[in-house]
Amino acid sequence: MATTTDEAYSSTMAVSKKVILITGVSKGLGRALALELATTYGHTVIGCSRDQTKLDSLHLQLSGVSPNANHLLLNVDVQRCNRSVEEFARIVKENELVPDIIVNNAGVVNKQGNMWEIDVQDFDNVIDTNIKGSANILRHFIPLMIPYNKGIIVNMSSDAGRDNTPYKMIAPYCASKWGIEGMSKSIAQELPKGMAIVALDPGVIHTDMLESCQGDLASQCQTPEHWYALFLTCFDNVSVSCFIFGIFFLFFSNSK
Ligand SMILES: NC(=O)c1ccc[n+]([C@@H]2O[C@H](COP(=O)([O-])OP(=O)(O)OC[C@H]3O[C@@H](n4cnc5c(N)ncnc54)[C@H](OP(=O)(O)O)[C@@H]3O)[C@@H](O)[C@H]2O)c1
């Protein structure tokens, strides 16, 4: 009898447990990923967000589905200051965890408006979270991974960071995601052999962020729970991940 894709992944993952750091796990894509990675594959999740109540409820769920994993969820604001992320990395190290994979997922979008009408603090918040927040994570976690010469970093990008033709009223968000694309390509040239980094456009998914941009139309899009299956093929199956990330890796290496 033919095995399903899920069965094939499960058998591979049975011998390959990973430690996966995901920022922004309180809701949306980050939460769906954290739950699925722990439930189906038994991976250990290191996560953060600024909402303690949601972190507590996620921790309860994660512990229920994979009680043997040492999940670590902390209240960390990735953009507020570099120091809080430094402390986050210190605690992770103290728990003897080293991420195999980082998903720099935490992100915000501005309140829609013409660029010249957008509140300066709203603009700053988007840049500080999406670009500087991601950089804070990488600044403190890449050094934990380098001694092992392995690790994959996924920086959440967006179509808004690749093709800005259809995107009006979210100039700060577009700028931040174009920034993520450039930063990822630059870091790709700096990482040691064995490590890879990619900017990933996840597609269009019904989350709070999408609702804030599209209102009721957002409900016509896929849910985070449907979306994760596609995302996981990017790195959960060893051969698939080698293939996909190999392509990105080659692309970035060749662009040196
Ligand atoms: N949904 C889409 O269609 C779509 C499309 C393209 C790209 N993306 C990207 O995918 C990522 C996830 O988006 P989403 O749709 O899942 O959004 P979401 O539902 O609004 O979730 C965003 C997550 O980021 C966290 N976060 C925001 N600011 C933070 C900060 N300063 N420190 C720590 N955590 C912070 C939030 O947690 P707290 O508020 O609890 O801190 C929340 O868990 C984003 O990078 C987004 O740009 C999404």
Q: Could you walk me through the main structural features you see in this protein, from its secondary elements to its overall organization?
A:
The chain is an alpha/beta fold. The protein has one domain: NAD(P)-binding Rossmann-like Domain (Rossmann fold), CATH 3.40.50. The protein is built from 9 helices and 6 strands, in the order αβαβαβαβαβαβααα. A 6-stranded parallel sheet has the order 3-2-1-4-5-6, sandwiched between helices. Helix 2 (28-41) packs across helix 8 (224-232). The radius of gyration is 18 Å and the shape is globular. The N and C termini lie far apart (46 Å). The structure holds NADP nicotinamide-adenine-dinucleotide phosphate (NAP).
Strand content: 5-15%
CATH topology: Rossmann fold
The CATH class assignment is Alpha Beta
Q: Give the integer mean of the pLDDT values.
A: 87
Superfamily (CATH H level) name? NAD(P)-binding Rossmann-like Domain
Q: What does the overall shape look like?
A: globular
- How far apart the termini lie comes to 46 Å
Number of strands: 6
CATH architecture: 3-Layer(aba) Sandwich
Q: Give the total of domains.
A: 1
Strand line-up of the largest beta sheet: 3-2-1-4-5-6
User: If you compute it from the alpha carbons, what radius of gyration comes out, rounded to the nearest whole angstrom?
Assistant: 18 Å
Q: How much helix is in the residues?
A: 40-55%
Run of helices and strands? HEHEHEHEHEHEHHH
Largest beta-sheet characterization = 6 strands, parallel
- How many individual helices? 9
By secondary-structure content and strand pairing, the structural class works out as alpha/beta
Can you list the ligands bound to this structure?
Answer: NADP nicotinamide-adenine-dinucleotide phosphate
List unreliable stretches of 5+ residues: 1-5, 8-13, 237-256
InterPro entries: NAD(P)-bd_dom_sf, NADPH_pterin_aldehyde_rdct, Sc_DH/Rdtase_CS, SDR_fam
Keywords: Membrane, Transmembrane, Transmembrane helix
Organism: Cucumis melo (Muskmelon)
Transmembrane segments: 227-252
